[in-house]
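A sample follows:
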Amino acid sequence: MNLRRLAINNPPILNENEEMRLALKKINEKGIGRILLINNNNELTGIISTRDILEHLAKSYESSGNFSAFLNTKLSNLMSKNLIFVYENEDLMDALSLMVIRNIGSLPIVNQYKRPIGIITERSLLFLYNDLREEIKVSLFSSRKVQTIKKETLILDAIKMMIKRGFRRLPVENEENKVIGIITAVDIIKAIAKLSSSDKLDRILEMKAKDLMKTQIETINFDDYLNTAARKLLEKNIGSLLILNEQGFVEGIITERDLLFGLYHLLIYQKYLKQLATKPT
């Protein structure tokens, strides 16, 4: 299958010499949690994710007590230099395999001159579920140990928790440990972008989870199929679904990354079944 079929053809791209201020604006405009970086020859040189940005913000504030250094940081000093990418003529299954093996959520696509022309993401690959039979249930790929935060948790503490645990989203609970919302790395980046554009980034220190969380909670059941989960994520334009019990307590979560792994296994399994069906007896 051709790689370009599911690629995002106009990904956020910036010169590696630009500053963090512009990266924040770009993510806020595009709504994609990754920015591709190029040099003066328009060649791909790196990639920056929401995690990279949040980690740098936390470290910058801890070391200086303000956000000036963070906003003025050159992107070349922050970008992931262990760059993994694919060429436009490569096969989609090869790209999926690479994402699973390397445990990454996106792959830049470049032409023969190493100039970025697109990006393949976890979300874009979810469309493949539309063509697959329902074989695997949510229970097999969802996470049962879910990290949550309280609604009064400071945003800076939520950022630190995301960095420490490697999460991009955190369910928010009330005093009774019932889920009342969810906050994502992109939600925080957008708030940072809005505050920094008006020179009010210090206000992020006062903000709490309840100030940024989305209160619309989308759920799924352990017995539903992965296909249903993928379809719901695409329809709602979200990155995760919670599994709640009847009392409103969180029992699990399934994310785009979980569905990426499930997709890989489902494709391998169905390919194996086809081989068995065509094998001479």
